[in-house]
Write a structure and sequence with these properties.
Elements lengths: L7 H17 L17 H30 L7 H14 L1
Length: 93
């Protein structure tokens, strides 16, 4: 079985699905806590998992566009992937 190359259109569709999921999630899921809990409690563990899941989501968003970010140096049509993925992921992290 050969490896299928991901098309740019498919990447944009996946990004649209991810954006749709973000819109369905409650706002507090994306909130960053003002005070970080530094002890080893259940509450601190939940806070860590919350931040870890946010980081994982934005990493996934960046990885989705990675192939096209690399191609954007040669092809202008992929510039959106480089620009949007970089800006969105770094701003949210």
């Amino acid at each position: 079985m050969g490896m299928r190359i991901l098309s740019y259109t498919t990447t944009q569709k996946i990004e649209g699905l991810l954006d749709g999921l973000v819109a369905e999630m409650p706002e507090e899921l994306w909130a960053i806590p003002g005070n970080f809990i530094l002890n080893r409690t259940v509450k601190a563990g939940k806070q860590f998992i919350h931040l870890f899941l946010q980081t994982w989501f934005f990493q996934l968003h960046g990885l989705l566009h990675l192939l096209f970010m690399l191609r954007s140096a040669k092809k202008w049509k992929f510039e959106y992937s480089r620009f949007m993925s970089t800006i969105i992921s770094s701003t949210n992290l």
